[in-house]
Amino acid sequence: MTSVNNFRDYGGWRTRDGAHVEKGVFFRSAHHARASAADEARIASLGIRTVVDLRRAPEQRRQPTVWLERLGLTALTSGDMVDASEHAPHILALRNAPQGGSGMRTFMIDHYRDLPFEPQHIDLFRRYFQALAHAEGGVLIHCTAGKDRTGLLAAFTHHLLQVHRDDLMEDYLLSNVAGNIDARLPALIRGLKETYEIAVDTEGARTVLTVEPAYLASAWDAIAQRCGSIDGYIVDVLGVDGVTGDRIRARYLT
């Protein structure tokens, strides 16, 4: 993809018992507001039938998915659900954290503790797993940068499909490469100033526009404290019972 950042297949990983997650079914990315005609055609060719937009309603209005209605796909969104913020996690960090890498890193680690339990995310994560159990065709999950909310949901997917924790983390960290952050950093800093009136130095921008193992680990720690385990969260909070989990694994493991 030339006009959609961080677009990739998050299938293909090997599971702990030697199976493989199906490829060509699970896709993830940043927003699609600037999707070109060529990239729209590629999306149309991938067999995607369900799009899960993890952004808040104001984010969707600022950067709409330009091809969604034209392709006639099923869209899962938050609708008009009331939320405490209208911005992506990395924008919140830039607005609220002390300038510099250390302060913003601390903000992101703390924020990841809350992400799994925000009502909007719980609602969309639940509907996503139900779609995996019952819908036909591929699925695309995305947010604004395709790294935090999207990365968390992809990690839950890999956990449910019994991908090894090291591989789950490797896929999460691929956003730092697939997002082409270093090459795009000057333009991203200019865009933050123009769109959000945020002035940020290079170190701070890189900290919030990339992902780190400590971010995802923070979410895991919060889940362990509140739910006992990731399995407990998936069952008790997301409503993915044993039958549904078995159905998803039967559909997508080879």
Concise synopsis of the structure shown:
With 254 residues, this protein is an alpha/beta fold. It has 14 helices and five strands.
Task: Walk me through this protein's architecture.
The protein is α/β, with parallel strands linked by helices. It has a single domain (8-246), classed as Protein tyrosine phosphatase superfamily (Protein-Tyrosine Phosphatase, Chain A), CATH 3.90.190. The protein has 14 helices and 5 strands. It has a 5-stranded mixed beta sheet, sandwiched between helices. It starts with 7 loop residues before the first strand and ends with a helix.
Question: Would you give the CATH topology?
Answer: Protein-Tyrosine Phosphatase, Chain A
Rg for CA atoms: 17 Å
Q: How many domain units?
A: 1
Gap from first CA to last CA? 27 Å
Average pLDDT taken over every residue = 90
Using the coordinates above, name the CATH class.
Alpha Beta
Helix/strand order, N-terminal first? EEHEHHEHHHEHHHHHHHH
- From the spread of the alpha carbons, the general shape counts as globular
Q: Describe the strand arrangement of the main beta sheet, using strand numbers.
A: 1-2-5-3-4
Number of strands: 5
For the sheet with most strands, the description reads: 5 strands, mixed
CATH superfamily: Protein tyrosine phosphatase superfamily
The helix fraction, in percent, is 40-55%
Total DSSP helices: 14
Defining key terms:
254 residues, alpha/beta, five-stranded mixed beta sheet, Protein-Tyrosine Phosphatase, Chain A
Sequence-ordered SSE layout with sheet pairings:
Elements: E1 8-9, E2 26-29, H1 37-45, E3 48-53, H2 57-62, H3 68-71, E4 74-76, H4 89-96, H5 101-114, H6 119-134, E5 138-142, H7 149-160, H8 165-173, H9 175-178, H10 181-196, H11 202-209, H12 213-227, H13 230-236, H14 242-252
Parallel strand pairs: 2-5, 3-4, 3-5
Antiparallel strand pairs: 1-2
Helix pairs in contact: 4-5, 4-11, 5-11, 5-12, 6-14, 7-8, 10-11, 12-13
